[in-house]
Write a structure and sequence with these properties.
mainly beta, binds zinc ion, globular
Length: about 60
């Protein structure tokens, strides 16, 4: 499964909930909706960051 596929869960228990139409902050990236499976926090991440993303609330990731 690709990191940009909806339903992907990375090594930090962060789940990709699908692409948004919002442009990301990296070159040619879109923001993806992410859910933390540890605390339930929702946030947005660049597609290129999904594989290594950490929850900004409980894992100290960038906001
Ligand atoms: Zn969390």
């Amino acid at each position: 499964m690709k990191t940009t596929e909806q339903g992907f869960v990375n090594q930090n228990d962060q789940r990709n909930d699908g692409c948004t139409q919002e442009p990301g902050t990296d070159h040619c990236q879109k923001f993806y909706r992410m859910t933390c499976l540890r605390c339930g926090h929702h946030y947005l991440a660049n597609g290129s960051d999904i594989w290594q993303r950490k929850c900004p609330k409980c894992l100290g990731g960038k906001p």
